[in-house]
Predict the 3D structure of the following.
Amino acid sequence: MSQELSVSVWRSETNAFQEFAVPAQDNQTILDVVSWIQANSDPTLSYRFACRVGMCGSCAMMVNGEPRWTCRTHVKKVLKSNSLQIAPLRNLPVVKDLATDMEPFFDKWVEAKGVFQGTKTRHDAIEPILPDTAERVAASTAIECINCAVCYAACDSVSGNADYLGPAALNRAWSLVNDVRDGAYEERIEAVSGTGGCHNCHSQGGCAKYCPNDLNPSASIAGLKRKTTRNWFGWGRS
């Protein structure tokens, strides 16, 4: 790697990439590169980040055409011919430069009924939940999503179908339909069976390939397809 990186950054005002020369450093991340450009070359560059350690997911961007957490992506891992291309997440409206509007992503989370609906009150005894039951294992496998939208940006079905709920929302729905404490099973199954629901997934697996937390939304969506099919035939919840 040479002493300077050639970095192309998407700029919303010109609707084009702008070129920057950035000093190369050891153990440099993509977020380090973006921060250097804003601090030293163009203070008007807009982007989003928070924790810098892979906890919040807010720094996700397209890097050389692939969605990534920029705080966890080291330059040496993705550098091509000493060049980088950095753009806002795909499939979301751009607020400015590298910052996207997350509202459509979270609207679909709500459409998929991704909010836990408890059946107990604070006055009820705490119900013991065994960690090794099939339902709890399925729920726990899908539960570590932090809403970074990397899977949403990776999904070609989202690109081709504006109504599609997307991998993250459906992954959350899968977690909840397997949670025995939740009381909205039928309502949620109906929500993920509709026009933009689980059957729009083409099973290409981009969501699983790029998820930084190693989740498998494709498997969750396949589970929803089985559940919704059983529901359609009137075969019950199992």
